[in-house]
Amino acid sequence: MFAKKTDDNLLDAVEKQNAQGNHLPPAIFIMGPTASGKSQIALEIAEQFPVEIVSVDSAQVYRFMDIGTAKPDQATLARIPHHLINLIDPAENYSAAQFCSDALDVMRDITQRGRIPLLVGGTMLYFQALLDGLSVLPAANGQLRTVIESDAKKLGWPAMHEKLREVDAESAARIKPTDSQRIQRALEVCMLTSRPMSEILRAPRKIDLPYRTIKLVLKPSDRSRLHQRIAIRFENMLRQGLVDEVSLIRKKFAVGSEMPSMRCVGYRQAWLYLEKEINLQELSDMGVAATRQLAKRQLTWLRSIMRKYEVVEFDCLGSDLPDRVCSFLLTVDIGKKARMK
């Protein structure tokens, strides 16, 4: 395990972070589960260091999806530079490959301005894609997806899952029979390449990230307290008008419940409520449960990243978290131009 606790091994972690590719420009990664306080920490860092924030969030790329994605408000966006927010409409798609391309472009521009890219978010696939590279999968094919969706309407997704098992048993074992999005993608890849997606994913991947990355992980010391935060957060989203936000998107755009934007946590449950399939209490309960499941998946991804990379871990529940993170960054060699404002 490469992770270092800031309580016991801070000096060791500092030395290793400093030694990592000193000739490269720095970039700061803040990774953590939902409701861990990542965005607030990023704002604290932005107040003290010459950074620009790069969102690593697959939901914040969508315009008009503000409440359910906990997007920064307009005043914050005007005060502190943010990137990769509000890129596309809810009826459009956005891939990890697109994120990598966009993120590298933005990071290069930030660095050329003499500032530091601060990547913050909870989409661990995007972080892993930047660090490890991506398998070379074909781009989505709209016509083929329409055919697959048509078959699924006739047969049901469990039957499509069985079809997947026949051509790619390894992917089928990993994907739930109810996970229509991933079943569709695995079938699509197989049909486009005549190869199982699992075989393509096993191929060696490599990306040479031209940055010295300072990787900070926010994790809860008490999972139950994180769950309390999640419940409060989702209830606040409902009070702020999440249902109305989804209703407006449905009227404004040609979106369906299976589109990636409407599969985001909170939006999927609000969709069911607007379809009168669940009541308001069920919306709340299901939204909180789905957010907790998301946090669990994010923590699983984090453990994988922490096994492979040197990171510095902070307890996201600590009352002095902003001070501890900023104090740590002062000890890391991020260049003379990057000292406190």
Automatic annotation (TrEMBL):
EC supergroup of this enzyme: transferase
UniProt entry tagged with the keyword Aminoacyl-tRNA synthetase: no
Gene Ontology molecular functions: ATP binding; tRNA dimethylallyltransferase activity
EC number: 2.5.1.75
GO terms, biological process: tRNA modification
Gene3D superfamilies named among the record's database cross-references: 1.10.20.140, P-loop containing nucleotide triphosphate hydrolases (3.40.50.300)
Keywords on record: ATP-binding, Magnesium, Nucleotide-binding, Transferase, tRNA processing
Region annotation Interaction with substrate tRNA: where it falls in the sequence: 57-60, 181-185, 263-268
Record site: Interaction with substrate tRNA: T123, R145
Superkingdom of origin: Bacteria
Keyword Protein biosynthesis: no
Listed cofactors: Mg(2+)
Protein residues bound to ATP: G32, P33, T34, A35, S36, G37, K38, S39
InterPro entries reported for this sequence: Dimethylallyltransferase (IPR039657), IPT (IPR018022), P-loop_NTPase (IPR027417)
Binding site for substrate: T34, A35, S36, G37, K38, S39
Catalytic activity from the UniProt record: adenosine(37) in tRNA + dimethylallyl diphosphate = N(6)-dimethylallyladenosine(37) in tRNA + diphosphate
Cited Pfam families: IPPT
Function per UniProt: Catalyzes the transfer of a dimethylallyl group onto the adenine at position 37 in tRNAs that read codons beginning with uridine, leading to the formation of N6-(dimethylallyl)adenosine (i(6)A).
Cross-referenced PANTHER family: TRNA DIMETHYLALLYLTRANSFERASE
Subunit record text: Monomer.
Family per similarity comment: Belongs to the IPP transferase family.
Name of the protein in question: tRNA dimethylallyltransferase
Source species: Nitrosomonas aestuarii
Gene: miaA
